[in-house]
């Protein structure tokens, strides 16, 4: 193998092959289409070496296994057929890893996401470190996509359909102990012994099969599966309102694989991946991802940050109530809400009360903690209490003259020279986006 290869093979004296993953010139490992030939060359050597007892895939990066596939590959696809072909190529490569005649172990430290987890799922066993940097997940849904290299088929069979649906539909990332409890990994060890623990696991002649929990076994049956998918479809439709095709296709593909077999599931996965890659939703989400990545590269200003001790919110509707909840109950900052009537303020207070009361019922927090957090939120129908706010967020409904009036009014009340206007999506604790602008009346920075 050349020194520029991202995959390097080393056969130890105990006849265990160690494949080190190290993408040249990159801080993190990502899977690229051109790596397929490198991996296949290594797999060929492994198959031809009859003395090998096992194989271990491990990263040579400091705190990263594989962060996912290179999203630029999708951008280069001109149509759904090309994106589908890309998915089928990934599926074939993972199938070749899974078909190796000796035990194959993924030794995971750091981020193991997207295509990285799909590669780990193709291995026969997985072992990870107990480090806080170690997380595992399939976040493709956040880009308007689904896992395209077999993840929708292997994960349900490994951890159960209910757990798999939850992971893939939300894109949630599991930490080491969570992954162990879910059955996603077979062991959790300190980083210092990761390689040796993986080697010992690879030497075992027979790897015991994991038994799914009783709940997952029930849901795996025809009746349980039918009820589960009906419920998941209903809840998903309520959340997306039909505006997010990726979630619908994820459910379809997983159900197809379980009902008709893996072969049909892989075929459905590849076709769905190709179609989703061309949707405006996926294209927009990928554009946001790239823009966010560029923003992170900006070193920013050398000026020290100003104080942030209290926040004001204009508007107590759904958006204002959500922002108040995030700011007070998650950020721990006092919040003052301004609305045209007390009904709006009461609505915002009830929003936080309901969320906190749910936490109390589930015994996540005590009633005293609920009351303490709720006390951080207050309101008024005028601008009393706004003069010393370090940050004011406008959250009134979409009426431009009203927005302009309120911004002008609150601007006259504030002592600070810079104003930050954030526009959130609902629910407010999901994400916000923005761009910069400047008015002619002072140093304004507006994020819309």
Descriptive overview:
This protein is an alpha/beta fold and 448 residues long. The chain has 2 domains: 271 residues, 2-enoyl-CoA Hydratase, Chain A, domain 1 (Alpha-Beta Complex), CATH 3.90.226.10; 136 residues, 3-Layer(aba) Sandwich (Rossmann fold), CATH 3.40.50.720. Helix content is 47%, strand content 15%. The chain has 17 helices and 18 strands. A 6-stranded mixed β-sheet has the order 1-2-3-5-7-10, with helices on both faces. Strands 4-6-8-9 form a 4-stranded mixed β-sheet. A hairpin with a 4-residue loop joins strand 1 and strand 2. It is elongated, with a radius of gyration of 26 Å. 40% of the residues are buried. The C terminus is likely disordered.
Topology of this protein?
Layout: E1 7-11, E2 16-21, H1 35-48, E3 54-59, E4 64-66, H2 72-75, H3 80-98, E5 104-108, E6 111-113, H4 115-122, E7 125-129, E8 135-137, H5 151-159, H6 161-170, E9 173-175, H7 176-182, E10 187-189, H8 194-203, H9 214-220, H10 222-240, H11 245-260, H12 262-277, H13 280-297, E11 311-314, H14 318-330, E12 335-338, H15 342-361, H16 367-374, E13 377-380, E14 391-394, H17 400-413, E15 420-421, E16 423-424, E17 432-433, E18 445-446
Parallel strand pairs: 2-3, 3-5, 4-6, 5-7, 6-8, 7-10, 11-12, 11-14, 12-13, 15-18
Antiparallel strand pairs: 1-2, 8-9, 16-17
Catalytic activity: a (3S)-3-hydroxyacyl-CoA + NAD(+) = a 3-oxoacyl-CoA + NADH + H(+)
Protein name: enoyl-CoA hydratase
Enzyme class: lyase
């Amino acid at each position: 193998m050349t020194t520029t290869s991202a995959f390097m093979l080393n056969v130890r004296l105990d006849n265990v092959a160690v494949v080190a993953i190290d993408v040249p010139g990159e801080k993190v490992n990502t899977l690229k289409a051109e790596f397929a030939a490198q991996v296949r060359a290594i797999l060929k050597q492994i198959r031809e070496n009859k003395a090998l007892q096992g194989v271990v895939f491990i990263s040579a990066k400091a705190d990263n296994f594989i962060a996912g596939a290179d999203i630029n590959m999708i951008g280069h696809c001109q149509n759904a057929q090309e994106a589908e072909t890309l998915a089928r190529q990934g599926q074939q490569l993972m199938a070749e890893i899974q078909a190796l005649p000796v035990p194959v172990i993924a030794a995971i430290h750091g981020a193991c996401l997207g295509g990285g987890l799909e590669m780990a799922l193709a291995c026969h066993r997985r072992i990870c470190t107990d480090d806080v940097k170690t997380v595992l997940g399939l976040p493709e849904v956040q880009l308007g996509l689904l896992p395209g290299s077999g993840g929708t088929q292997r994960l349900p069979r490994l951890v159960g359909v209910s757990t798999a649906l939850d992971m893939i539909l939300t894109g949630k990332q599991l930490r080491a102990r969570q992954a162990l409890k879910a059955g996603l990994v077979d062991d959790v060890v300190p980083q210092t012994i990761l390689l040796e623990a993986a080697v010992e696991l690879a030497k075992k002649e027979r790897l015991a099969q994991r038994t799914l929990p009783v709940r997952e076994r029930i849901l795996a049956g025809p009746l349980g599966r039918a009820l589960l998918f009906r419920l998941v479809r209903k809840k998903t439709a309520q959340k997306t309102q039909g505006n997010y095709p990726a979630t619908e296709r994820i459910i379809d593909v997983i159900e197809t694989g379980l009902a008709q077999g893996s072969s049909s599931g892989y075929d459905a996965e590849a076709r769905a991946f190709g179609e989703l890659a061309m949707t405006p939703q996926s294209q927009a989400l990928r554009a946001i991802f790239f823009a966010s990545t560029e923003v992170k590269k900006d070193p920013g200003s050398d000026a020290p940050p100003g104080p942030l001790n209290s926040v004001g919110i204009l508007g107590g509707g759904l958006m204002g109530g959500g922002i108040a909840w995030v700011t007070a109950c998650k950020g721990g900052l006092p919040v003052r809400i301004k609305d045209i009537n007390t009904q709006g303020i009461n609505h915002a207070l009830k929003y936080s009360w309901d969320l906190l009361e749910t936490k109390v019922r589930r015994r996540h927090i005590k009633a005293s903690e609920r009351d303490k957090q709720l006390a951080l939120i207050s309101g008024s129908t005028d601008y009393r209490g706004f003069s010393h706010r370090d940050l004011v967020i406008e959250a009134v409904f979409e009426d431009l003259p009203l927005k302009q009036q309120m911004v002008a009014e609150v601007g006259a009340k504030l002592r600070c020279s810079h104003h930050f206007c954030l526009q959130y999506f609902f629910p407010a604790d999901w994400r916000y986006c923005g761009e910069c602008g400047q008015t002619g009346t002072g140093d304004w920075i507006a994020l819309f």
